[in-house]
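Q: Sequence in, structure out?
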Amino acid sequence: MNDSGRLRRRLAEQLVRDGVLRSPLLRAAVEAVPREVFLRPGVFLDGGDVWKPVVAGGTDPGEWLEIAYRRDTLTTQLDGYLSADQVDGPVAGVPTSSSTTPDTVVGMIEHLEVEPGRRVLEIGTGTGYSAALLCHCLGEDDVTTVEVDPDVAKRADDALETAGFSTWTVTGDGLLGHPRNAPYDRVIATCAVRRIPHSWVRQTRPGGIILSTVGSWPYGTGLAKVIVDADGNAEGRIIGRSSFMQARAQAVVPVAGDLSARTAHADSERETEVPPTLLEEWMPAFLAQLAAPGAQFVRATRSDGTRLRYLFDPARESFAGFGARGDDGWTVRQGGPVALWDRVEEALTAWLAAGSPEIEAVRLRVTQDAHLYWIDGTPALRWRHRLV
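A: Exactly. Output:
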């Protein structure tokens, strides 16, 4: 067995040992599909404030394979265009495409409950590695994968062909699905969406599964698993924490500029009942996005070391600004037509009173008009988000 085969076998054994990989069908795929093929021309390794490019052709083959089979997310594109072979040294940038950690890729496919004869739509081809695993499990004719970035899509298509899979690789907006090959038995998204598009529901057979990360913050997002019914709705729950890059059409533009000027004119000021620092924790952050869709949480520090926290909703021209008091308490100043912190604080207070249930307690229902979220037994923890 060559080095790549040995490392694939080692990866499969590790994933089985850790309870991530359970299906013999998927284990055979992990042992057969060479991840290194899907990382070319290279990757960016995290160097703190910069990204270090590692190019396959310019790296010792053994070292390259060890990098390829790390159980890490490996960044393959920065700033929407830059690949590792286009730079000569470390660079700054924002990751815009990556090969997600094998634990996450394999775990999601396990949750998808794939078996031969199922037709799958994948949203977000990325490097093409997860599409290759699906092709190995199901056959290339039963897998359709959609990627919005033409350059990323081409590299993935080339890699899939190199690995021996001539599947349906489509360049387009995955939020629209791909009706040409519908209906599907399974839909899986390797990007985060604010809400599950109803186009995915329409293109899925009754009884089919949709698996997608929901939320727009870089953390505090959940993996939703819903089952489509005969009426064109879908219902299920959040099955765990999940973190993916945002779908590009829904990418959030960070709040920038003079934050003091943005919050200069408040309509009210009071002490908070719970500290805004709760929003730095995963489940409270998820609840905040349910209670105040469109809100962004911003952290800052004054030159004198004073901690500042903000909630902004640019679309609704509303804000909440927090200031730490000397007694470890906080005050909140709110402005605009929506009292953001009132909504979020109400949700957090109800969540604490209910015993702080984990994210897996959240259920959801997707209809043509709205998303419904709730936690059983707690009427105060129920939200309806209209689709616009």
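Residues 100-252+359-388 form a domain with the Rossmann fold fold (CATH 3.40.50.150).
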